[in-house]
Amino acid sequence: MSSSSSLSAQPPPLAAAAARARAALKRASSKAALAQLRARMAAAEGRFEDAARLRDAGQAALLGPFSLAPLAAALDAALADLRYEEAEALAERLAEEGEALAASVDEEDEEAV
Q1: How many CB atoms are located within 10 Å of the residue 33 CB?
Q2: Is 9 exposed, middle or buried (0-12, 13-18, 19+ CB in 10 A)?
Q3: How far apart are CA 103 and CA 2, in angstroms?
Q4: What are the pLDDT digits (tens) for 57-94?
Q5: What is the average per-residue pLDDT within 30-37?
Q6: In contact, 50 and 111? CB cutoff 8 Å
Q7: How far is residue 10's CA from residue 7's CA, in Å, rounded to a whole number?
């Protein structure tokens, strides 16, 4: 995604959507790290099935943001070409998919605990 300095020059709805997307992806990454830590704790406590589920949830969450890379690249291209309406739509879609990814990490984490 573009840096925050270039987003500050963008129309407010675009900047808000991009910020929402970044926050969702950051949340998913944080949840992935937490799931991996919980997996280690579960393994140390001998709860191996929980550890395996948490490990899998953490790995899926870590790979999830990479699945959004083509969408982020399209957003960057739209911004570079000053196609703000398209960029806003892409940022909204990226935010929605990022939030869905973060929510799926939450669900998998809750199931494994």
Answers
A1: 12
A2: exposed
A3: 24
A4: 887 777 766 677 788 889 889 888 988 889 888 888 88
A5: 82
A6: no
A7: 5
Residue 26 CA, distance from chain mean position = 6
Its pTM stands at 0.56
pLDDT-based confidence at residue 49 (cuts at 50, 70, 90) = very high
* 74 CB-side CA count, 13 A: 15
Question: Is residue 5 scored above 50 in pLDDT?
Answer: no
Contacts of 46 (CB under 8 A, 6+ apart): none
Structure tokens at 73: 């690249």
Q: Cα separation of 102 and 65, whole Å?
A: 10
According to DSSP H, which parts of the chain are helical?
Answer: 4-7, 12-44, 48-67, 69-80, 84-112
